[in-house]
UniProtKB/TrEMBL annotation:
Protein name, UniProt field: guanylate kinase
Gene Ontology molecular function terms on file: ATP binding; GMP kinase activity
EC number: 2.7.4.8
SMART domains in the cross-refs: GuKc
Pfam families to which the protein is assigned, alphabetical: Guanylate_kin, H2TH_5
Annotated family: Belongs to the guanylate kinase family.
Any single Gene Ontology cellular-component annotation: cytosol
Gene3D superfamilies in UniProt: 1.10.8.50, Guanylate Kinase phosphate binding domain, P-loop containing nucleotide triphosphate hydrolases
Keywords: ATP-binding, Kinase, Nucleotide-binding, Transferase
Organism from which the protein derives: freshwater metagenome
PANTHER family given in the database record: GUANYLATE KINASE, GUANYLATE KINASE-RELATED
Length: 289
């Protein structure tokens, strides 16, 4: 067996720099695909003239396309009989034709993403519940590590994860955002959100303020909506009216609510929850404007 050529330190350094530049170029291109500014066919055209792009693995490109996570990308590759290690330059004519046909289908007008946050007791869950029956709206179901309550259904109220499953989801980049709250963790599965947006549905995430900031960092086009109470006194009344909270828990919630109200300026839109129906009507107007 022939021995590989011996490289000098200078040659190795140069090769590492070239490899780094190639990774950066492919990473920038995938970012354009993720934000929708570059189509699949556009990448294929670039690859026909650019060896760096041509050497990109097919699976990397597919996973960059909005709505295509690991599972959906793998399914498409199996359907087109494409090896997991296949690069763009190695695609056969039939494989290329199948992929181009897949991404040349008439596109549906993409839905809008809304993130609803606000202090505890302001009525976020009531707004989300009302939006579930509104046509063209889909309310995301969060994953959580907390145990289900007696009346909660897995996949309807929450996706109930073990700590191990939640850790694996974080490791695999499956969450659009996640945060710890009251001793448990909560996260938004990214794939279902992207799929619903691709179908033309408007999507609502009802999440905590830290989670809203994570979503905005990843998806700047998301509209952050902050829900405020009509007055501080009304919020205090609502929180004190929760029969399930101890006096200590209510005091903690009130202190946290004061901090959360201070975050309103970070949001794109502030709505006052006098009546749930009015908030829902405002969200529908935003979605159709």
């Amino acid at each position: 067996m022939a021995q590989p050529p011996i490289m000098s330190a200078q040659d190795r350094s140069r090769a590492l720099e070239v490899a780094k530049a190639a990774r950066q170029e492919r990473s920038a291109l995938k970012a354009q695909v993720r934000d929708g500014s570059l189509s699949f066919s556009g990448v294929i055209e670039i690859a026909s003239k650019n060896q760096v792009v041509a050497k990109m693995r097919v699976v990397e490109l597919l996973e960059s396309i909005p709505g295509y996570g690991k599972v959906r990308a793998q399914s498409l590759m199996e359907k087109c009989a494409i090896s997991p290690t296949r690069r763009l330059q190695g695609l056969g004519k039939l494989q290329m034709s199948a992929l181009l046909a897949e991404f040349s289908k008439p596109s549906v007008h993409r839905g809008k993403l809304f993130v609803l946050s606000g202090p505890g007791g302001v009525g976020k869950s009531s707004v989300a519940k009302a939006l579930r029956v509104v046509p063209d709206f889909w309310v995301s179901v969060s994953a959580t590590t907390r145990p289900p309550r007696f009346n909660e259904v897995d996949g309807v109220d929450y996706h109930f994860y073990s700590n191990e499953k939640f850790d694996k989801a974080i490791e695999d980049g499956e969450f659009l955002e996640w945060a710890a709250f009251a001793g448990n963790r909560y996260g938004t599965p990214a794939q279902s959100v992207q799929e619903k947006l691709d179908l033309g549905l408007n999507v609502l995430l009802e999440i905590e303020i830290d989670g809203a900031k994570q979503v905005k960092a990843k998806l700047p086009q998301a509209t952050l909506v902050f829900l405020e109470p009509p007055s501080w006194e009304e919020l205090v009344s609502r929180l004190e009216g929760r029969g399930t909270d101890s006096p200590e828990r209510r005091a903690t919630r009130l202190a946290l609510a004061q901090e959360e109200l201070a975050a309103a300026s970070y949001f794109d839109i502030v709505l006052i929850n006098d009546r749930v129906e009015e908030v829902v009507a405002s969200l529908i107007r935003l979605a159709t404007s």
